[in-house]
TrEMBL record:
It holds the Pfam family Patatin. The keyword Lipid metabolism applies. Keywords: Hydrolase, Lipid degradation, Lipid metabolism. The keyword Hydrolase applies. InterPro entries: Acyl_Trfase/lysoPLipase, NTE, PNPLA_dom. It comes from Thalassolituus maritimus. The active site is at 46 (nucleophile), 208 (proton acceptor). Coiled coil: none annotated. A motif (DGA/G) lies at residues 208-210. A motif (GXSXG) lies at residues 44-48. Residues 8-221 form the PNPLA domain. This is Patatin-like phospholipase family protein. CDD domains: Pat_hypo_Ecoli_Z1214_like (cd07209).
Length: 386
């Protein structure tokens, strides 16, 4: 049986990305003992890029990589990601206001509500970037991509490190650039606009990769993936229109910001997955002989998507008391928008309790789909019992 290159897509979503670690942990449990890295291509955006690069750096020992990722997330706290003291939060608000009022005078100041220098320090210690090339050279990994958004060009850029055979690509507002992945790429990919500061890379300022990312699945395909696993962080799949309650008051700033973050992080991934499924259904109705004769470049792509079975906003609400007081005051109350799917709290709540709840949910959701996961990797590993 021919082995197809498998691609892993890790979407962004701030603290929501803890869910991905639980799914990856379950995949390690489901697949045969002692197996190598099951993902040939890894493409991550924002917090998903942190998980992706962390996993890529341990591609030669998937088991240790998963344990390392879980340990990082379980030791997260808001103060390890951004400054949570009143002085730090107040300074961020002052800097934003100063830039709005006197923009020209302070045009070189980073504009962000929160200072994420603690995250930079943490990632610098936690991720072994030099191990990525070793994994590629030894065949344990084909390629890894970190997706960023150029603030000047308006392009979605996939910075990738991979096999020598992979070439750069250039599509409408979507480009791929070979580079050596560094800490700056991760910081840029996770720089949520106005919340965390943009990062200068290769002569341009870049922000969160989810912004203007029209085709989140595309980078993995350009890097050679022939089948795709998507681990999303939406958790709104089971919410019905009739469950949405009429507003009792004008939307708070936290609710509006949460709505904007959902549009950036969740909508494009859901739309791209739907688009891929539609293309697959269309191609299934066209005989392969006809596709060859017409020289069609499109081909069906096996897809496995795993999303939270519970509302992540609701889970965040259950852990609202874990948010730092200074940030709670800034967001207005808990910062959680409750059941309407627009809570900013779920993006910023890097607390042990919330992260553990999401890791446990991801593990449970993936284990419930054990047979599908085994089938997805059936060409990589022989079937075996746990």
């Amino acid at each position: 049986m021919d082995v197809q290159k498998s691609g892993l897509i890790l979407s962004g979503g701030g603290a929501r990305a803890a869910y991905q670690v639980g799914v990856l942990k379950a995949i390690h449990k489901i697949l045969p003992k002692g197996h190598y890295n099951p993902f040939d291509v890894i493409s991550g955006t924002s917090a998903g890029a942190i998980n992706g690069v962390g996993l890529a750096s341990y591609a030669e020992n998937y088991r240790i990589g998963i344990k390392h990722l879980e340990r990082i997330w379980l030791h997260f706290s808001p103060e390890t990601i951004y400054r949570t003291d009143m002085a730090g939060v107040s300074h961020g608000i002052f800097r934003v206001m100063r830039s709005l009022v006197m923009g020209k005078r302070f045009r070189n100041d980073p504009v962000s509500l929160l200072n994420n220098q603690p995250l930079r320090d943490l990632l610098n210690d936690a991720i072994k970037f030099d191990q990525i090339q070793s994994a590629i050279d030894n065949g344990a990994l084909h390629a890894v991509a970190v997706n960023c958004s150029g603030l000047e060009s308006g392009e979605s850029v996939a910075f990738f490190q991979g096999h020598y055979s992979i070439t750069n690509w250039d599509r409408h507002r979507r480009v791929g650039k070979r580079t050596r992945i560094t800490l700056d790429h991760l910081m840029a990919s996770s720089a949520i606009p106005m919340i965390f500061p943009a990062v200068k890379l290769h002569g341009e300022y870049y922000a969160d990769g989810a912004v203007r990312q029209l085709a989140p699945i595309s980078p993995a395909l350009h890097l050679g993936a022939e089948k795709i696993m998507v681990i999303g962080v939406s958790g709104n799949a089971h919410r019905r229109k009739e469950d949405v309650k009429p507003p009792s008051a004008y939307p708070s700033p936290a609710k509006v910001m949460g709505h904007m973050l959902n549009a950036a992080f969740l909508d494009s991934m859901e739309a791209d997955v739907e688009r891929l499924r539609r293309i697959n259904r269309t191609l299934e109705r066209i005989p392969e002989s006809v596709r060859r004769e017409a020289d069609m470049e499109l081909k069906p792509i096996q897809l496995l998507e795993i999303n939270p079975s519970r509302s992540i906003d609701q889970i965040a609400g259950e852990h609202a008391d874990e948010i730092p007081r200074a940030l709670k005051l800034t967001l207005g109350g808990s910062g959680n928008a409750g059941q309407n799917g627009s809570g900013i709290l779920s993006y910023l709540l890097f607390s042990r309790g919330f992260c553990k709840a999401l890791i446990d949910l991801g593990y449970s959701d993936a284990m419930a789909r054990k047979d599908e996961i085994r089938a997805f990797f059936s060409d990589h590993f022989e079937d075996s019992d746990d």
